[in-house]
Amino acid sequence: MIEVLSAAEVERGRRTGALVADILQSLKARSVAGVNLLEIDRWTRQLIDEAGATSCYLDYAPVWADGAFGHAICTGVNDGVLHGRPYDYRLVDGDLLSLDLAVLLDGVAADAAISFVVGGAGAGSAHAESLALIDATERALAAGIAGARPGARTGDLSHAIGSVLREAGYAVNTDFGGHGIGSTMHQDPAVPNDGRAGRGFPLRAGMLLALEPWVMADTAELVTDDDGWTLRSATGCRTAHTEHTIAITEDGAEILTLPTRQG
């Protein structure tokens, strides 16, 4: 299903997107050494409930998964890159943490992800590698957004994202990538993180897309945890994931998942 939203629905999407972004910034500020991933999940539920919204993940149970996700947010640490199920783990300084959150508010969903190093400043090869991974995903996301406008095709966005990732020296996995979003979290069209320009579905004003570049330091192969959800790098290398929900407008793309405040 591909939805084209009305102006009123896009406006509701702006409110949802701001909520998602603000929650992620709040969680980032709280995610210090000693914090348990299950605490992050609990805080997320509280913030969503206070806003009168719902998490898109709690009852999410696609055909490839082992039951419902059962948590409010995805938490990936170091080699965990996608669909990270929160578990009993306490963060330490230097961990590379990815938070992926999708929320439904007033009938419109928004989806975003951020990656950051716990403890902020650091030194050493692991820290430098983490910053390089994060930077590559952020630049790739910016390139994809820059190409989003009515008449562009999904392949144009995929090509822009993949070009940045490959130029940064990373192999690109296209098993999971961006997607349409609207009244539900995952919709068509798919927007892989690499592709051929000029191919794919033509974009129209009123469409919402969640673009989400992610990379692994030295592999393109994923493995699945015993929890049936968490996807990790096959080699145990570090990973990063960055995502925004955008609205296609007559003038280009509008990022909906920008925070209204910091911290």
UniProtKB/TrEMBL annotation:
<dbReference type="InterPro" id="IPR001714">
    <property type="entry name" value="Pept_M24_MAP"/>
</dbReference>
<keyword id="KW-0479">Metal-binding</keyword>
<dbReference type="InterPro" id="IPR002467">
    <property type="entry name" value="Pept_M24A_MAP1"/>
</dbReference>
<protein>
    <recommendedName>
        <fullName>Methionine aminopeptidase</fullName>
        <ecNumber>3.4.11.18</ecNumber>
    </recommendedName>
</protein>
<feature type="binding site">
    <location>
        <position position="111"/>
    </location>
    <ligand>
        <name>a divalent metal cation 2</name>
    </ligand>
</feature>
<dbReference type="GO" id="GO:0046872">
    <property type="term" value="F:metal ion binding"/>
</dbReference>
<feature type="binding site">
    <location>
        <position position="186"/>
    </location>
    <ligand>
        <name>substrate</name>
    </ligand>
</feature>
<feature type="binding site">
    <location>
        <position position="243"/>
    </location>
    <ligand>
        <name>a divalent metal cation 2</name>
    </ligand>
</feature>
<dbReference type="GO" id="GO:0005829">
    <property type="term" value="C:cytosol"/>
</dbReference>
<dbReference type="Pfam" id="PF00557">
    <property type="entry name" value="Peptidase_M24"/>
</dbReference>
<feature type="binding site">
    <location>
        <position position="111"/>
    </location>
    <ligand>
        <name>a divalent metal cation 1</name>
    </ligand>
</feature>
<feature type="binding site">
    <location>
        <position position="212"/>
    </location>
    <ligand>
        <name>a divalent metal cation 2</name>
    </ligand>
</feature>
<keyword id="KW-0378">Hydrolase</keyword>
<comment type="subunit">
    <text>Monomer.</text>
</comment>
<feature type="binding site">
    <location>
        <position position="179"/>
    </location>
    <ligand>
        <name>a divalent metal cation 2</name>
    </ligand>
</feature>
<dbReference type="InterPro" id="IPR036005">
    <property type="entry name" value="Creatinase/aminopeptidase-like"/>
</dbReference>
<feature type="domain" description="Peptidase M24">
    <location>
        <begin position="14"/>
        <end position="250"/>
    </location>
</feature>
<comment type="similarity">
    <text>Belongs to the peptidase M24A family. Methionine aminopeptidase type 1 subfamily.</text>
</comment>
<dbReference type="InterPro" id="IPR000994">
    <property type="entry name" value="Pept_M24"/>
</dbReference>
<dbReference type="GO" id="GO:0004239">
    <property type="term" value="F:initiator methionyl aminopeptidase activity"/>
</dbReference>
<keyword id="KW-0645">Protease</keyword>
<dbReference type="GO" id="GO:0070006">
    <property type="term" value="F:metalloaminopeptidase activity"/>
</dbReference>
<dbReference type="GO" id="GO:0006508">
    <property type="term" value="P:proteolysis"/>
</dbReference>
<feature type="binding site">
    <location>
        <position position="243"/>
    </location>
    <ligand>
        <name>a divalent metal cation 1</name>
    </ligand>
</feature>
<feature type="binding site">
    <location>
        <position position="83"/>
    </location>
    <ligand>
        <name>substrate</name>
    </ligand>
</feature>
<feature type="binding site">
    <location>
        <position position="100"/>
    </location>
    <ligand>
        <name>a divalent metal cation 1</name>
    </ligand>
</feature>
<comment type="function">
    <text>Removes the N-terminal methionine from nascent proteins. The N-terminal methionine is often cleaved when the second residue in the primary sequence is small and uncharged (Met-Ala-, Cys, Gly, Pro, Ser, Thr, or Val). Requires deformylation of the N(alpha)-formylated initiator methionine before it can be hydrolyzed.</text>
</comment>
<keyword id="KW-0031">Aminopeptidase</keyword>
